[in-house]
Amino acid sequence: MLRSSPPLILGLHLLLLLGGANCSSSPTEAPAETTATKAAPLPPEFGAYWFQGKAELTSYDLEQARYGEIHKGEAALIFVTEDFSRRKQVKLDNPAQAPASDKVPVLKLNFEKKFLTGIYPYSILTSTFTPLELGTDPHTLKVSTSVQEWCGHIFTQLNLRKKEYAVSQKSYFESEGDSETTLPLALLEDELWSRLRLNPAGLPTGSLRIVPATAYIRLQHLPLQAEAATATLAAAPASNRFKATGLQVYKLTYTSGRSLAIYFESVFPHRILGWDETYLDKPGAKEPRQLTTRATRKRSLQLDYWRTHNNEHLNWRDSLGLSR
Asked: Where does the UniProt annotation place the signal sequence (predicted)?
């Protein structure tokens, strides 16, 4: 287990020691880069922070747009490094026994939202698996999103193939049903959160085409496809909202009118302080309204949370300020 920051290559090999602890595919080959992203070596301090056998957990106060109103709730970002199978596209159970050609060290993000709409709850989880070495593996390998509420649940999964994403979608809506399709290789909004943590200076800026967040696509019942957008990276304006200085903001503005702004620390480890997502909220609304979903950080900690699953560990939720 790492206690100091090793050279990058050694650090990646040491991930093998952690893969077992951290929480239908054909082999994929790294295709040619088709986006404006830039790869860069991981900073020297990366290993000491990310390879110590713990995840970074951050809780947020959430104001979520849905049905033409804003609903209060909670969100959490769970970042953790682990070894991923290139062939099966799942976390390796025994990375030490896996062929080197099949192991891809990734930064996994589990992005959770929970909120109430009237009597019934919503629970949304997006899992994104982004390679640490974007120079050799420039595309996120897998994204899966599930949305559960009392009417039913829906699911979307993208798996990287050689030159496209295989897309599996399930839904309880008759108009959507179940489908197996493909998506031309493109930058994914879901992966930007992890790219930001790896190398914020390499985030794409200017005009680009990008696939909007899978959770947004499913909530708004839109087709999954790349859209035109403009991206900027700048110093964040001073604000009492985050109680911090030296922040940056990465903003996407789609030609459709939707926008996403992610606020984060300019210095390593580039923790995310919050975000704003603005769009015309249509489904289920009496009248479509331009609303802003907003999240603001409450607390952060590093923890091997997969070992804290007993009743005696409920106090960790208190440490994050999360409801039970």
From this structure: 1-23
Strand, coil or helix: 92:
coil
Residue 143 CB partners (closer than 8 Å, separation 6+): 126, 127, 128, 129, 156, 157, 158, 188, 190, 191, 214
Angstrom CA distances, 92 to 53, 95, 174, stand at 15, 5, 36
Count Cβ atoms within 10 A of the Cβ of residue 178 and give its class: 0-12 exposed, 13-18 middle, 19 or more buried. Answer: exposed
Rounded to two decimals, what is the model's pTM?
0.88
- Is the pLDDT reported for residue 36 higher than 60? no
Q: Of 60 and 173, which is predicted with more confidence?
A: 60
Distances from the Cα of 305 to the Cα of 46, 143, 316, 317, angstroms: 20, 22, 9, 10
* Alpha carbons 148 and 170: distance in angstroms, whole number: 12
pLDDT for res 287: 83
In the DSSP assignment, the letter for residue 239 is -
| Closest by CA position to 194, among listed 231, 244, 143, 248 | 143
**Could you read off the pLDDT of 246-255 as tens digits, one per residue?**
999 999 999 9
The residues facing 58 across adjacent strands are: 77, 300
Tell me if the bond preceding 269 is cis, omega within 30° of 0: yes
Read off the tokens for 50: 């990310």
> What does the domain layout of the chain look like in residue ranges?
8-320
In the prediction, which pLDDT does 25 show?
A: 36
Query: Where are the alpha helices (H) located in the chain, listed in sequence order?
Result: 8-18, 46-50, 189-198, 214-220, 315-320
187 close to 53: Cβ distance less than 8 angstroms:
no
- In sequence order, what are the beta bridge partners of 184? 164
Residues 115-169 pLDDT 10s: 999 999 999 999 999 999 999 999 999 999 999 999 999 999 999 998 999 999 9
Task: Tell me the average pLDDT of the chain.
Answer: 89
Closest residue by Cα to residue 93 from 102, 37, 254, 181: 102
Neighbours of 279 (CB within 10 A): 22
